[in-house]
Each structure stands twice: as C-alpha cells, then as structure tokens.
Batch of 4 targets.
Target 1
Amino acid sequence: MVRPNRARNVAAVLLVNGDDGETETYRHCLEAAAAGYAVDICEFPDVVDRAGALAPDVIVTDLVVSRAAGGGLELIRSLRQNDRTREVTIIVITARTAPSDYDGAFEAGCDMFLPKPCHPEVLLAEVRRGAALTRRRRFGRTTTPQQSS
C-alpha cells in the first residue's frame, strides 16, 4: 500500500521487519520527521516482490532477517540482481559488526552500514542521504524529493 504522502513526491522507505522490535521505532521517527517519509514494513520472504511493486527510495534491513542461512546478505544480493530494485539505496542496521559482517554486507551490495543500537536521528540522516543517492541513480538528480517542488 502506498501511503498518502507518497503522492506528494515524498521519499518512500521500505523497512524489513526484524526480530528486535525496533522497526516500529524507526517507522515512527521517519514518518514524524519534517520530510514525512512514506514508510512501509515488510516481512523477509516478501521483500523483493514488495520492493519491486512499491519502488521505494530506500530499503532498510538487518543482516539477521531470517533463520535461513545467509538471510540479510542473500536479500541484498537478490535486490541488486532485480531490475526493479538494483538502484535502490540499501541501508543495513545490525548488531553484527565484526569486520567480516561489514565486508560481507558491502560485497553483497549494501550502500550504508549502521551498527546497533542506532539512534533514530542517525537513521533519519542516512535515509535522507540514501534517498538522494537513489534519485541520482534513477534520474541524475541531485535534490531529494522534499527539496524539489
């Protein structure tokens, strides 16, 4: 479902629901921000299809999104291989912060890596940067949706 503020050309964010309960905190922060991001939450097995349908500007995920081997890394790889999602900025927020986790996330195709606990304001700043990055990839623009009128 596309939220009403998406129609006003506001950046859309797809949050991949993790097991730690922080997803709703992040959603509230992003929706309450001055930019009023359009936020949708999706469960792991449906992310690639949902992202393809919604065309979000940013996808936020953990490396631990499923009990399946490779969970978050496989998700990132799948998003990068999909024609409809390969340009979307992917932000990883995770408690897995060993150098091998960091390297693995970037090798899989993530754009930004944030360690947990992640303050909501830090996520907000990175989503703003990520939305601008996606717009440049898609359209060659340097402004974010909330800056253009």
Note: Residues 4-136 form a domain with the Rossmann fold fold (CATH 3.40.50.2300).
Target 2
Amino acid sequence: MRRSHADYRSLKKSGTKIPRRFADLSAKIKLAFYPLGGLKDGRRCGKIDIYSVFCHHGKDCGAANRKTETGANAVRVLFVGDVVSEIGCDFLMRTMPQMKKKHNIDFCIVNGENSALGNGITPASCDIILSAGADAVTGGNHTFRRAEFYEILDRSFTPAIRPANVHRSAPGVGYTVLSRGGLRLGVINLLGASFMDMRVSDPFDCLDAVLDELKADGVTCSVVDFHAEATGEKRALGFYADGRISALIGTHTHVPTADAQILPKGTAYMTDVGMTGPIQSVLGVEAQCVIKKLRTGLPVRFTNPSGPCSMCCAVIEIDNKSGKAVSIESYEIK
C-alpha cells in the first residue's frame, strides 16, 4: 500500500515503526509533473497522482552557510554512476552515506537502471538506493526491463525518473525538481539516440523543452544524466547546453572518463562517471560470460561476480544564483 507523507507523519505520532529513510527528516522535496515529465509546486498533471517526498538527510547540511565567489549559496551535488546488481546496491549502502557526510552534500542523484539482479530496476533495488540516501534515482535503456517497476514510475512515493525523450506512452516522468532549505535543483534524464537499443526523440530538442519548463518555474540549477553510448553525442550535448544547465554527467558505458571539467560557459561536464559494482568484471558482468558471447555470438546468461567493488561518482558545486558550476571532482571509492 502506498502512503502519502501525511500518512507517515500520522504513523510517527502514533508510535508505529516506519521505514528508516522517512524518519527524522528535516526537509521536504515537493514534486509535480508536467506532460514532459517535470515537477512543480507539489502537483503533477495527467495520469500521475499528486504526492510529496522528503529528503533523506538526517540533518541540515549547512548549504545556507556556504557561499560562492558571487556571494550566492553553494549547492553541492553528489552524482553516483550506474549501480550494478545486488553487489553494487550493497556497496552503495556501505559507502555513499560517508561520502555525503564528508563532502557536505545537499542533493544526491544515483543512476539505478542496472540495480536489479541481471539488469533493469525493481521496486526492491530502488528502495535500497533511496535507503542509502539518494534524493533522485535516474534511469536509462534498461529502465523498462522489469514490468513490476512501472507502477513505481507512475504512482509511487519514490522519486524515480526515466529518460524524458522516450515515447509519451511510457510510464513515469523524465525530470524532477528537488527542494531543500531554500535551494532548488532540476534533475533531468535523457537517453542518447546513437547506437542505443531504444527509439527515442531527439535529446537536443527534448532538453530545450524541459529547460523551458524549468525556466518558467524559476529553477536556476539543473543537472542532466545523459545515458548514452556515443562519446561524441555526449560531448556535443554538453556544448549545446553549456551555460544553460549546471552540469551534464554521462552514464551507461560504466567506465569513468578522465575529462571532468567546467565548459567555457559554466557547465560542469564528464563524459561518463562510471559504475558502482564489482571491479574485476566487464562493466559489472562476469568476464567469462562476456568473452563467450563475443567469441561465439550465442546468447549467454550474464551473471555478476563477487569480490571487491568500487563506487564511481562526481561531486559538483553550483552557484545557486547563476546556476553555473563552480567545480567538479570525480572519485572512485574502493
């Protein structure tokens, strides 16, 4: 049964035990959806229900006390690369909370499209990511692999989004606005059009449309998760959006690139942030499975190896007044 935030407040007053991530929360994120998949003022249109959710920070991160060179409040965002299977979820739970605390993070974005055993995302794997401290869970070409996740995308209390440029009949929405302590952050999910296994609309045009919606809502800061195969397509969209978004972080290839930078007009950029999962693997999959598939061309059931893991991520600092990126740093936590 799905509950609203008011239901959880009532349960807490009555002494009923509630999920940890909804307890002792200090900030509310109001979400509402536009036809393209956006959120505004606690309302969403179309077939999706109205709801509100809470941040997963246990205490104030002190954003109002951090200033950039312009004197504006600084917004610190943690972006975590594709979480792979159960082993990746487990490592995320053990690693991400400390990373958030160490870097005084305001908002945390995690790509969860491969977090289920095998691939795709399920209600259970999404719940683990949120319990670890994510404020938004983004997707990609595997978002729709598991039909049981459709209801979560459409109706759940959970702030999970899917690529904005898939067909309008797809469940869920493609962007959200997070709010906390006077700070607001747009989170946009897009899918690449080159060398991908899904038919999508042009990500350039889609981004323009979403940014128009965010601008009308007064949102200055925004981060794009661009889930794409082609390096050139990612790079091109970064320059196309330079100065109009705070950051564009690439996902999907699971290999971190050495190009974290601020583009000329103030957008933080990284071609691919990498993955969260087993180190001794081929993109999170048992090496022998991939070798067999490449050598024979026959179908192979992929499995995920055990062993040491890493969490690949980036920390972005944004000037809340201008929406420009101040810094970006990439990390691989082992």
Note: The longest helix spans residues 85-102.
Target 3
Amino acid sequence: MQRQRLRCPGVASHLPSTRPLCACSQAHFSRTALAGDLGVDAKLVVKESSRLLAAAVDVVASSGWLGPALVAMEMSQMVTQGLWDRDSPLLQLPHVTKEVAQRLAKDGVSKQELHRGARRAPCHLNSKARAAG
C-alpha cells in the first residue's frame, strides 16, 4: 500500500493537537481506511465535524459574512460526501470508482444523467455490469 504524507495547510499545522484531526479529515476525504484507534477517531471526527460545521454556517451566515459562510458550506459538503472539493461529483454514486468517473466524464455523462437514467452507460461499462451480474 502506498503511504501518503498528509499535510495540514494554514495556522493549525504547527499545533501538535490538530495533526490527528487533519489526518482523520484528509483520510475521510480521500476515502482511505485508517487502522486501529485512528480509524475509530476518524468516525468521531466526521460525526462531530458535521455538527460543528452546521453551527459555523449558522453563525457566519447570520452575521452576514458571505466568504466564511461559503467556505463553511463547502467544507460541510466535503465532510458529508467524503470527497475533496476537486473530486468528480460522480464519485458520490454507488460503485463508481475514480477510473469509472474519469471514463464517464470523458464520454460526457453527468451525475444527473446517470441518476435519472436518461442516458445509457457506455458500452464498455454495460458489458462489465452484465458480466458481474
């Protein structure tokens, strides 16, 4: 397994107490499994992050701070979806891997089209689905 170096940009990176939080969050966004106590901690971080971000959105939005409100909403969406903001929205769909999302995007298939079933999947994906079924 390839080992990734997780980094926390910004002010929090120099504080030792924030490093596990950053590692758990980044593993969640990258959909990387963590072993042992760190895996248990990651589940707790995700659960608590959702609630804290919802409260942050409420506070900054009610204060009229548009920039921080948008950042908090984007971060909340990342936590809920378990994806980085730069990842394909197709990865939210069940059984869609990064490779499948890249092929679908190359073929011009959107998440909405797949969800509605408005367009058939490309032939190379249909044959794999039939073989697996």
Note: The mean pLDDT is 76.
Target 4
Amino acid sequence: MCIIIFIIQGDRIQQPVSLLRFIGINPLQNGKKYVTLQLRNNIRMKKTTIDDCKIIQLPKVEDPRGSLTYIYENEHVPFPIRRVFYIYDVPAGKDRGAHAHKECWEFIIAASGALEVHVNDGTRDKTVTLNRPFQGILVPPGIWAHEQEFSAGVLCLVLTSHDYDENDYIRDYDEYLKIMGVNK
C-alpha cells in the first residue's frame, strides 16, 4: 500500500509526496499536537527558520534543600527523547557544533555555567545566551547551529530526538546552503 500526501497551499494542490512511514502524533506543552511523518526522498513539508528555535522554560522546584528541574519528553520538549549527551571541559576560545541535522531535533541547556548558541537558517541568524539550568533552546532539523563562548566549568546538556547517525548531519556550511536552496 502506498499513501500519497498532497501539500496544499491556499486553494492549490502542490506536489504529491510519498509517505515512507507514520512516526506518531506528539502533544506540545500548549495543548496542540503535531504529526511526524517520514517522507521519501527527504522531501520537507515545511522549511524551518530561526523563528522555530524557541527558548523553553522548564519547571523549577525550589525548597530549602536546593532547586530541581525535570524534563518530560513530548511535554517539555516536542519529541521523544532518544539520546542525551553533555559537553564539558571545553578549552577557552573553542566552539562546538557547527552543523545542521536533516531529521534530528535538539534541545540544548546550560546545566551549569553559560554559553552562546548561534542558530542560522541560511538567510537569518541569531545568538542566544544560555545561563540558567531551567531553560534551553529548541533547535529543529534544518537549522545550522554552533555553540560558542563557553564559560569556565560549563556543562552543556543536549537532548535529541534521534539516536546518533552520522548520515543525519550536514557538516559543511556551503552544502547546507545548497540543501536549503539558498544562493550565496
């Protein structure tokens, strides 16, 4: 069986795309839901922009013993959490990241210390400073991101929607621009 999905803009049907598999329906914190589909030939239904990179405030529970922050998948972040990694002992002046993902979502937190996250959609960019362990930045697929200006002793925590897959990475910025359809 083959399911054909048509992209509709206004009152016009655009190109048909072939569905490879249905991944799931996921709730967002605001009560809305989004559908995740994997399409053949890496066809994207929506081009992501830096406006899709959101700062998310996480719950903060305070009491005399200290503070606690927790994260639930599909509630605080809009994806099932498949992998967690953290970056630390970054030498002064060094950057991390400098890549985009084809499918993987990331949620980046400065669990301790501070860092800057620079996001770029091929036409616009912005830099966000992370310095609170109860907030992070959501980086959807199709966004070029790199982390910079790490403070001494920083602990950068990253939650992802996918297992590690080198084929999901775009590590060359010129290739990224070409994939995004941006002319230099």
Note: DSSP finds one helix and 15 strands in the chain.
